[in-house]
């Protein structure tokens, strides 16, 4: 009886039991509502193979996509107070941060990496919308300033990939102070004569748009990205008018002169490599001109 109970019956139950299927094997495209196999979606860099909709991409995946051979070095960012204002709404801000960090591979919404794009050295900093909506707080401001200073010390361009809902309300005025801080950091790049390229992804709004997202030498956006300060619904309620179709989307902004180009994610690395090559030619020529070439020895007649 023990043999039947302990060995045979469990095997029979196992045969009849339904196998658990992971709930993350498929993803529904928010644009066309088609189901996409997760492995195929990751291979396509989270671009829907049916309609071309650009879904949001994490910081690690973004950095691996942009750097040559997916090789990059994380640039350390100084620590900042996690809850400077002891903020609490429905739950403590410190608890929200712990939960966000547990789900993320980074301590905050911005990750800084150093590597090569098309053979050119570059510093790339990426905002991850999955981390509290990519909101800008003390840590994001510190990461941006660190990235700019690293670019200056390495004499290489800075590429910023934005994805944010704006300033982090739990940090109040301290969050808003990151706007002028980032502006000063961009000025350091200007004074050093280094390129500053901004890649705007969906969504880029609020204080991020009002500061470093719109201070680039070149502004690139992914197709369909929502870019603006306030959202379309807020604007419609304020001005009491219906906005044009596609208002604040990348293509509309390109048509009205706020962007330099809209580039598909699969061609983004190639476009960045070409731009960096063009924008750093002057520096390369200057470096060659500064080389001390000894004069040729006189030849005997």
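-> sequence recovered:
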């Amino acid at each position: 009886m023990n043999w039947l109970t302990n060995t045979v019956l469990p095997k029979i139950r196992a045969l009849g039991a339904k196998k658990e299927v992971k709930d993350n094997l498929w993803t529904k495209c928010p644009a066309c509502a088609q189901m996409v196999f997760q492995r195929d979606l990751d291979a396509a860099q989270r671009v829907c193979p049916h309609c071309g909709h650009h879904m949001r991409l994490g910081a690690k995946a973004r950095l691996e996509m942009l750097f040559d051979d997916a090789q990059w070095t994380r640039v350390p960012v100084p620590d900042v107070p996690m809850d400077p204002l002891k903020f609490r709404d429905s739950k403590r801000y410190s608890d929200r941060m712990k939960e966000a960090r547990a789900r993320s591979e980074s301590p905050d919404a911005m990750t800084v990496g150093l590597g090569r794009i098309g053979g050119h050295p570059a510093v790339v900093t990426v905002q991850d919308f999955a981390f509290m909506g990519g909101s800008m707080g003390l840590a994001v401001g510190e990461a941006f300033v660190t990235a700019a200073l690293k670019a200056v010390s390495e004499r290489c361009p800075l590429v910023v990939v934005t994805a944010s809902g704006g300033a982090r309300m739990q940090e109040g005025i301290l969050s808003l102070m990151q706007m002028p801080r980032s502006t000063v950091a961009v000025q350091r790049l200007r004074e050093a004569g280094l390129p500053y390229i901004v890649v705007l992804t969906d969504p880029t709004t609020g204080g991020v748009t009002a500061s470093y997202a719109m201070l680039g030498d070149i502004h690139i956006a992914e197709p369909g990205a929502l870019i603006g300060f306030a959202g379309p619904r807020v604007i419609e309620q304020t001005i009491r008018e219906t906005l044009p179709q596609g208002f604040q989307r990348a293509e509309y902004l390109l048509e009205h002169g706020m962007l330099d180009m809209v580039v598909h994610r699969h061609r983004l690395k190639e476009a960045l490599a070409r731009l960096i090559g063009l924008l750093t030619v002057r520096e390369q020529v200057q470096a060659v001109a500064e080389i001390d070439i000894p004069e040729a020895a006189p030849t005997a007649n």
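The first strand starts at residue 26 and ends at 28.
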